[in-house]
Amino acid sequence: MPDAAKGIEKLDLLVVADPVPTTWAVLSERKNDTYLLPICTSYECNGSRTASNRSLQWGEQITKPVFESKDDNEVMYLLAKKLGFADRMFKNIKVENNVPVAEDILREINRGGWSTGYCGQSPERLKTHMANQKDFDLVTLRASAGPAKATITACRGRAGARRRSSIPAPIRSTIPTCM
After folding, report:
1. Where does residue 20 rank: exposed (0-12), middle (13-18), buried (19+ CB within 10 A)?
2. Are 51 and 171 in contact (CB under 8 A)?
């Protein structure tokens, strides 16, 4: 970690945005041009969630943000606005009360994600899959009934693999995830 601390010292600006303070917030002795921003957890904001296995789901806000935390999309917008490039960064994304619309953000990701295989995950598709989880088979991951019939849940596989899928099962609220 000493090399990381040296690298941090050389930065013109350090912004750490996390729900809780992490190592990066305190790794160096920086006092100037360093900002620790409290970010909402996934329970406190709307939008798509991407797991490390490339699966996607849509999530709705479950609870209001605590204390001064903000949605990470709002923080990105406010920071871009303060630094003078929000008009360019969010030119294809609607912003309401300083919060970029999560559906528009996913559409923008889709526009630029064809080369990585991130295509076809429209907000409408993800919302339909979340609302109809009961229709998806846990093995084939295909919907056997309902509005999503014959579709595969969540995301497509790796880049260029539009004919196959590497998708995990949809979340099932009947299966406990914590003991």
Report:
1. exposed
2. no
Fill in the DSSP letter of residue 128: H
CB 95 within 8 A of CB 76: no
Q: Which of 118, 117, 101, 120 is nearest to 159 (CA)?
A: 117
Cα separation, 108 vs 92, in Å, equals: 7
Report the percent of the chain where pLDDT is more than 70: 82
> Rounded CA gap, 107 and 145, in Å?
26
pLDDT bin (cut points 50, 70, 90) of residue 165 is very low
HEC string for 84-127? CCHHHHCCCCCEECCEECHHHHHHHHHHHCHHHCCCCCCHHHHH
User: Which pLDDT value is given to residue 39?
Assistant: 92
**What pLDDT band is residue 159 in, cutting at 50, 70 and 90?**
very low
Pick the more confident residue, 118 or 2: 2
Dump strand ranges (E) for the chain.
14-18, 34-38, 47-50, 56-59, 95-96, 99-100
